[in-house]
Design brief:
This protein has about 150 residues and is mainly α. The chain has one domain. The chain has 8 helices and no strands. Helix 6 packs antiparallel against helix 7 and helix 7 runs antiparallel to helix 8. It is globular, with a radius of gyration of 17 Å. The model has no long low-confidence stretch (mean pLDDT about 85). Pfam families: Arm_PDR (PF25515). It comes from Trifolium medium. This is Plastid division protein CDP1 chloroplastic-like.
Length: about 150
């Protein structure tokens, strides 16, 4: 519930807040009331069904994955999703999540003294932000540019 009320990064469209909250509530309800979804950790029973979300919730899901530090998932799912026609209305938010994930990868690289990996991730983030005119105006892009 604390994630549900947490603020999200600047730059996302208005619909992301609602889809993020809807997704969190749906997952919470599934975990509480659908044992086939949740499984049972004590008895080591894995979940039997996967979570299926509508396309309109995908940007919210990537936003959440980014918030909890799952940058690799954000990048993998984002790249795959952008290839689908159904993702077009949500492309800006998907790309923003991917750019933020690259920034996280860069931060981790710099912290581990892997400077070249950090700069490569920042370059990918910059490229992603420039790929969408609406994202090219963000302060995040100017912050990334400071490193170069």
């Amino acid at each position: 519930m604390s994630l549900r009320n947490a603020e999200i990064d600047e730059g996302y469209t208005v619909g992301i807040v609602a889809s993020r909250q809807d997704l969190l509530m749906d997952v919470r309800d599934k975990l509480l009331f659908e044992p086939e979804y949740a499984g049972n950790l004590k008895e080591k029973i894995p979940p039997k069904s996967s979570l299926r979300i509508p396309w309109s919730w995908l940007p919210g899901a990537l936003c959440l994955l980014q918030e909890i530090g799952e940058s690799k998932f954000v990048l993998d799912i984002g790249r795959t999703s952008l290839q689908h026609q159904d993702a077009k209305p949500y492309a800006d938010d998907l790309v923003l999540s991917m750019a933020l994930a690259e920034c996280t990868v860069a931060k981790i690289g710099f912290e581990k003294k892997k400077v070249s990996q950090g700069f490569e991730a920042l370059a990918r983030a910059q490229c992603l932000l420039r790929s969408k005119p609406s994202l090219a105006k963000m302060t995040l892009l100017s912050q990334v540019r400071k490193f170069f």
